[in-house]
Structures are given as C-alpha cells and as structure tokens.
Amino acid sequence: MGIILIIMPFFIGLGAWLLLGKRSAPAKCPALVFHEVSNKPSLFSLSEISQKRFTAFADELVRRDYRTLRLSDAVEAPAGRGATVALTFDDAFESVFTLAAPVLRHNNQTATIFAVAGFLGRRSTWDVYAARTHCSAAQLRQLAADGFEIGSHSLTHPDLRRLDDRELAREIGDSKKLLEDSIGAPVTAFSFPFGSWNARVWEMVLNAGYRCATVYRGAAAVADSRRVPVYGVYAFDSTPSIFNKIDTTVEFSLSRAQSRIMAHFAKGSAVVKFRKEYKR
After folding, report:
1. What percent of the chain has pLDDT over 90?
2. Domains, the chain, ordered by start
3. Whole-number pLDDT of residue 218
4. CA distances (Å), 20 to each of 13, 26, 194, 200, 258, in order?
5. If pLDDT is split at 50, 70 and 90, which confidence band does 16 have?
C-alpha cells in the first residue's frame, strides 16, 4: 500500500503532462497531417481515414469558411487573416492522388504532400503495416501542376537521427534533388520520417535548402517558426474532433492530446524495421 501511495502522484503527474501539460507553441496557422485516405480502411491501421469522412471534413472547411494553405505559404502568411489551416499528407501514398486530391480540387483547397523520393511508384517496405503503393513521378507532377505543394519525406523513410552524417545528407539532399527533377519545381518543405528529428537533423535540412518542416512530437518546444506543429488525423477521429485539433481559441483539447500520444507510436516502426545503417 505504501509503494502505491508513493508512485501514484508520479502517474497522475505523467497523465496530466501528457494530456494537458505540453501545450503547443503558438502557430500562425494550425496544421494537420493525414497519411492515407481509403475506400475500405483497414481495422489494423489507425493512420487510414475513409474517403467519406475526409470528404465530410473538407466540406465542413468550406462551410466554416476556412482557407487552406500549403506549408510553405503557412510559414510566410501573416497572423490574424481569417480562419486558415495547413493540410499535409505524409508518405504520398497513391490514395492521396486518387481519393484525397479530387475532393480538395472540387473544393478549391490545397495541401502539401510529402513524398518518399526513393519509393515513387513503388510499394512501401519501410512500414510495419501492409505494403501500399506510393504516388509515381507522373502523379506527383500532376499534383504539382494542380497547385499542390510537393515536399520531401526523405529518400527511404529511415529514422534520420540514427544515421551518420553521410547517410543523413543522402536522405535529405538526394531526396530533394530527385523530387525536383521529377516535378520540375523547387522542393522547400520537409517532413521528418516517424516524426523523429534533433538539432543535427534540422541543421542539415536547412543547409540542404529547405525552408520549413513539420513537427508532430514535442511541439511545445518549437520556437522556430520554420518548424510547424501538426496534429495527426486518425481512423477514430470524427469531423468535430478534427476541428478541435485546429481550434486556436481552445486552450486545451483532448483531440490534440490524443494526437500527441499517438505520434509516439511511430517510434516503434523504426525499431521493428531496424536497419543495418543505423548507428547503434
């Protein structure tokens, strides 16, 4: 009984910190990260959202008079210019081209799509989930032509923190060049695979010529306006809960807390898919 009384305050404090304590740094424009839109979401993938639910969210953005921004534009946009939100997609799965982009185009909305440059048109092997097809170079070119921003999600989707400088430069720099050659336009936005980054990684991202990046873990510590906090959208999210993530008038939000907690699960993928090039 005594030990329970001793450790109970620790767990209560930990729960409060996870749910309420880590407030995000103020952002000029709130931002969301999606992964895959599907006609038949898998029961075993929390990162998928149905096209029906995605369409309902996109339509609600119109009803509430939200303006969508690409990440690079969100970084530059002045604060206080009406309701805005930056929409992003990690991984650039083919479903973004076939299911999500048509919905956004229909509503005159835009987004930033982060592609894994070494997997264009290929099936994923880096994920713990079943293999899924990534957008091809031609599909990315079409998305760019339609006004969507194409950003880099690295070359092969590793945990960048675990790489030596040579491999890190390859993942960050080579992916930028490959994507720019593919779409014929500059690539200036970056998304860290598995949401994992540190000061060394961020410095190399900037040195490679990127101007901004998304962060969805440790967002409270973000002091650099070029790193934009994003909240993940998951299979269990409803339209109201998605809007709770981007409502800047609400100080604390259970939906945002859930996103912060869920983001930590991505760490496990890098462990399950441990690579020989990782520094131990």
Report:
1. 65
2. 25-272 (3.20.20.370)
3. 56
4. 10, 15, 23, 29, 10
5. very low
Q: Which residues make Cβ contacts (< 8 Å) with residue 50, sequence separation at least 6?
A: 37, 38, 39, 41
For the chain, what is the total number of helices (H) and then of strands (E)?
12, 11
Task: Give pLDDT tens digits for 202-255.
Answer: 999 999 999 999 998 655 555 688 999 999 999 999 999 999 999 888 777 888
Question: How many of the other CB atoms lie within 10 Å of CB of 251?
Answer: 8
* Cβ contacts of 9 within 8 Å, gap of 6 or more: none
What tokens does 73 get? 């534009």
Q: How far apart are CA 88 and CA 231, in angstroms?
A: 10
Q: Which element (helix H / strand E) includes 231?
A: strand 231-232
What does the pLDDT look like over 51-68, one tens digit per residue?
999 999 999 999 999 999
The CA-CA-CA angle for residues 216, 135, 53, to 5°, reads: 60
CA distances from 272 to 60, 129, 157, 172 (A): 38, 11, 13, 22
Distance (Å, whole) CA 253 – CA 40: 29
Helix/strand/coil for 134: strand
Give the model confidence (pLDDT) of 17-55 as tens digits: 455 444 444 567 899 999 999 988 776 778 899 999 999
The overall average pLDDT reported for the chain is 87
CA dihedral over 191, 197, 199, 203, signed as positive or negative? negative
Q: Which helix (H) or strand (E) holds 246?
A: helix 239-246
Give the helix ranges, DSSP H, for 66-136: 71-76, 94-95, 101-106
Q: How far apart are the C-alpha atoms of 81 and 53, rounded to whole Å?
A: 27
Give the count of alpha carbons within 13 A of 156, CB side only: 14
